[in-house]
Amino acid sequence: MRPYPPIAEHGLIGDLQTCALVSSEGVLNWFCSPRFDSPSVFASLLDHDRGGYFAITTDAARRPRGGPPDSTGAVTRQLYMADTAVLITRSLTPEGVAEVIDFMPVHAPHTATDRHQVVRVMRVVRGTVRFDLECRPRFDYGRAPHRLACDGATARFDGPGITAYLQALGPVALEADGTDVRATVVLSQGERAAVLLTVCDADSGAPPPVGPDDMAAEFDAVREFWHGWIGRCTYRGRWQQMVNRSAITLKLMTYAPTGAPIAAATMGLPEQEGGERNWDYRYTWIRDASLALRAMRDLGFTEESHAFRAWLMQRLRDGGAPGGEPLQIMYRVDGDPYLSEEVLGHLEGWRGSAPVRAGNGAADQLQMDIYGEAVHGLSPSGPAEDLVGYDDWQRCAALLDWLCEHWDRPDEGIWETRGGRKDFTYSRLMCWVALDRGIRQATATSRPADLTRWRAARDSILEQVMTRGWSTERQAFVQQYDNTVLDASLLLMPLVGFITPKDPRWLSTLDAMAAELVSDSLVHRYDPAASPDGLRGSEGTFSLCTFLYVYALAKAGRRHQARYAFDKMLTYANHVGLFAEEIGLTGEQLGNFPQAFTHLALIIAALALDAELDRDGGAA
Predict the structure, then answer these.
(1) Is the Cβ–Cβ distance between 29 and 43 less than 8 Å?
(2) Nearest-CA neighbor of 364 among 427, 425, 412?
(3) Mean local confidence (pLDDT), 252-275
(4) In a 3-state reduction of DSSP, which class is residue 368?
(5) Cβ proximity of 265 and 19 under 8 Å
(6) How large a percentage of the chain has pLDDT more than 70?
(7) 139: burial class by Cβ within 10 Å (0-12, 13-18, 19+)?
(8) What mean pLDDT comes out for the span 600-613?
């Protein structure tokens, strides 16, 4: 088993309350329970020796996926069963072909539970293959010890307040290896075996015995669940497979009991190998979640959109964030606003990228743009659709009244810089969006509102952005009022309707970004050297921004350029269609993985590009 496989060498499985990463070697090296943001059970992705893992490997799986075969000709391949979250890792050697099938059963996803399961099925398609199984949990980010009880068919790992059970089916003899277990399984063509991992609270009790029929029923159920869910997708465009995979990925990273999406499945994966830009993304950002659910709504997934809207309205009903603002930038999936950040100094980080942080110290930052994304997310698709009801409308109106008094303030900005508050153009832009959408909603539904005041504030913001956010020197909209740095977050300007996509000012901005921020169609967020963000090190190109660049090109009428940029960007997806946060200099994926921002932007770009190509008669 290779320590620290590339970030992209993973597939994602989940049950809509938590999730796991499985490497292309068949190693489950990231899993938290009972929720996305809970302490880890397996985390060798962040520390090979201390983090813990659950490996089912073969001789072939010990070779790099898709790389040159070893002297025996062994290679591995990994894929999803089409339109599902069932992951298949295939091992191919001259002696045989084997598969490990991984999935998490989806049981009553809308009811929060402490009990979560991972099913791992081993089967041989041709020849005879040996599987090596190792299960080495390390509870609480590797800080908590555990005890083992093993009788050959079942292993129980007892940690502080948490227990993991491993049940074997078929010719799998579990053997104690200290406080961990291992097994060697030899199967021939047509034979199969399985193990079921159940993680639950210590007082929840052991899972019932399972047999082959139970495993077959679980497989059929999870396959039918995902086929039924993706069948609601209304997209029928040119990139069906990639859009479906992005939608499934967003669904996998949404906590079903509350409807809150997380920003990414992981924490601590770096934006630069060996660097310090390593954050915990397992929380619900108002910004990311609002845009993600808007993208899902555009695909026809209205249930998810309504669920998040209810979660967001509850944050307003809660009566303000601990810092005194109406909302804070991120929460836990249950709405808890407290996300204290700690450094896990005992973990060395992926390939030595320390520090590893749990929690997020940016939670109490002031980021004024979130009000625009929030109101945008609450806004209806139809012109006169009343989505919030009278009482909640009163709360929205009070929020906008507050915004009229507080929009003109420096803040930390969308990128959560730790270099002090500035007058960020993007923050003003999204305050404009909040007021604009509120005005539209009040007018469409005849709700009471101080429209005169709202319009005055909205128009003041527009005038300020057009004067102070515009650089005559650069002939472009810029990041901050006191510098001339370009910022790719402003690619959202035409998407939210602040400016038309063919306005001369916007086309000039687009050209300036292309000259300074775009490298081989990949887009940097901004230049940290020109606008220090308080952090050491560099970063790759930001995949969200690249897809937003495709959107902007398409809407600007530059369809050929947009299509080429989009097609090139899709080549950076990993082998199962997933994207991390960033792309490095040699095409490697960097940052937390997979990232919701990237996948929602892929959907936005695909929808826009399809529409523009259709308008052009289908020509690329």
Answers:
(1) yes
(2) 412
(3) 96
(4) coil
(5) yes
(6) 95
(7) buried
(8) 97
- Asked if pLDDT for residue 267 goes beyond 50, the answer is yes
Task: Please report which residue ranges of 194-279 form alpha helices under DSSP H.
Answer: 212-230, 240-252
Question: What ranges make up the beta strands (E) of 160-282?
Answer: 162-169, 175-177, 180-188, 192-201, 254-255, 260-261
Which uninterrupted H or E stretch holds 127? strand 116-136
Q: Please compute the mean of the pLDDT values over residues 225-253 and round it to a whole number.
A: 98
Residue 2 carries which side chain, given as an amino acid letter?
R
Please report the DSSP string for 41-79 in residue order: EE-TTT-TTTS-EEEEE-TGGGSPTTS---TT--EEEEE
Least confident of 50-64, 324-338, 470-484: 50-64
Which of 133, 116, 105 has its CA nearest to residue 214?
105
Q: Are 79 and 64 in contact (CB under 8 A)?
A: no
Asked whether the beta carbons of 185 and 131 are under 8 A apart, the reply is: yes
Look at residue 69 in the predicted model and tell me its pLDDT.
Answer: 46
User: Please, what is the Cα angle at 277 between 274 and 280, to 5 degrees?
Assistant: 115
Can you tell me the mean pLDDT for 205-225? 96
**Nearest-5° Cα angle at 3, 146 to 186:** 75
Task: Please report which confidence band the pLDDT of residue 463 belongs to, taking 50, 70 and 90 as the band edges.
Answer: very high
- The 3-state DSSP class for residue 20 equals strand
- CA torsion sign for 421, 423, 427, 431 is positive
| 531 three-class SS | coil
Measured between alpha carbons, how far apart are the two ends of the chain, in Å? Answer: 44
Distance of alpha carbon 416 from alpha carbon 362, whole angstroms: 7
Give the whole-angstrom CA distance, residue 364 versus residue 207.
Answer: 41
Tell me: the pLDDT tens digits for 277-332? Answer: 899 999 999 999 999 999 999 999 999 999 999 999 999 999 889 999 999 999 99
Strand, coil or helix: 193: strand
Count CB neighbours of 257 within 10 A.
18
Provide φ and ψ at 390, rounded to 5°.
-65, -50
Q: Are 438 and 396 in contact (CB under 8 A)?
A: yes
Give the pLDDT band (50/70/90) at residue 531.
Answer: low
